[in-house]
């Protein structure tokens, strides 16, 4: 069994635990990004993908955080990522797989889903405020950042900040508190535009409320996973022709891209 499949099977076990908690407490969640793409295109993991992303409406997300420690098995831990702008993950500490010089444990990223303004003026203002605080947050932890593709605005700010060492002037917790308060201004339940506001794909992860809609269960490996009511519209916005496989050279997972083979 290769390393990627080991990670995937570990994440599948975590997913079973997560689904059990959501079922017990009637919590909503959705497969996001590449995880949803895997559901639709492969009925499971993308073969080379070792990452799993889930999103929960803010109310359900905060409920999950409040009860998960008493519900998760001992070897599964909750990790809050202040330097990753407020999302969290659950990790299986009983399994460690070598990638490069690192030992990596399977984990699932869980993101809060929030609302967004739907008129052009407030959309523009809200988007640029988020970009500003997001860039400040990255600067504050610049010594810990892995090289990766970001938006051009963030890339420019990060590059300048590395030279000027601006991270010494900033407090991560203060910045992230302001950012979290900002994205909570628009409620998932009452907004017509919703999504993973701080996702890797930026505004492409936002969609009409109807696209998320009432979660539907779709096949994922040997499980059923909760997905958007209209996954097609969501995936087209992020990936374009999402049924087309990427070139061989582009088929890399999270762990391989970060730590190497």
UniProtKB/TrEMBL annotation:
<dbReference type="GO" id="GO:0009100">
    <property type="term" value="P:glycoprotein metabolic process"/>
</dbReference>
<feature type="domain" description="LicD/FKTN/FKRP nucleotidyltransferase">
    <location>
        <begin position="22"/>
        <end position="240"/>
    </location>
</feature>
<dbReference type="GO" id="GO:0016740">
    <property type="term" value="F:transferase activity"/>
</dbReference>
<dbReference type="InterPro" id="IPR052942">
    <property type="entry name" value="LPS_cholinephosphotransferase"/>
</dbReference>
<protein>
    <submittedName>
        <fullName>Putative LicD-family phosphotransferase</fullName>
    </submittedName>
</protein>
<dbReference type="Pfam" id="PF04991">
    <property type="entry name" value="LicD"/>
</dbReference>
<keyword id="KW-0808">Transferase</keyword>
<dbReference type="InterPro" id="IPR007074">
    <property type="entry name" value="LicD/FKTN/FKRP_NTP_transf"/>
</dbReference>
């Amino acid at each position: 069994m290769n390393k990627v499949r080991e990670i995937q099977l570990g994440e599948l076990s975590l997913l079973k635990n997560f689904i059990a908690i959501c079922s017990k407490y009637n919590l909503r969640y959705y497969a996001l990004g590449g995880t949803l793409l895997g559901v639709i295109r492969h009925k499971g993991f993308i073969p080379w993908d070792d990452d799993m992303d889930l999103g929960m409406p803010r109310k359900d997300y905060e409920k999950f955080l409040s009860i998960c420690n008493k519900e998760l098995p001992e070897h599964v831990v909750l990790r809050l990522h202040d330097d990753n702008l407020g999302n969290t993950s659950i990790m299986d500490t009983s399994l460690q797989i070598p990638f490069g010089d690192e030992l990596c444990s399977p984990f699932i990223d869980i993101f809060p889903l929030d609302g967004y303004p739907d008129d052009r003026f407030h959309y523009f203002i809200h988007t640029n405020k988020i970009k500003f605080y997001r860039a400040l947050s990255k600067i504050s932890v610049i010594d810990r950042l892995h090289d990766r593709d970001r938006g051009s605005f963030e890339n420019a700010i990060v590059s300048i900040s590395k030279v000027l060492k601006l991270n010494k002037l900033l407090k991560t917790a203060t910045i992230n508190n302001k950012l979290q308060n900002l994205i909570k201004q628009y409620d998932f339940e009452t907004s017509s535009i919703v999504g993973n506001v701080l996702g890797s794909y930026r505004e492409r992860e936002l969609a009409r409320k109807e696209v998320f809609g009432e979660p539907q269960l779709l096949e994922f490996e040997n499980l059923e996973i909760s997905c958007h009511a209209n996954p097609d519209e969501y995936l087209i916005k992020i990936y374009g022709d999402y049924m087309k496989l990427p070139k061989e050279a582009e088929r890399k997972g999270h762990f391989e891209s970060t730590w190497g083979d």
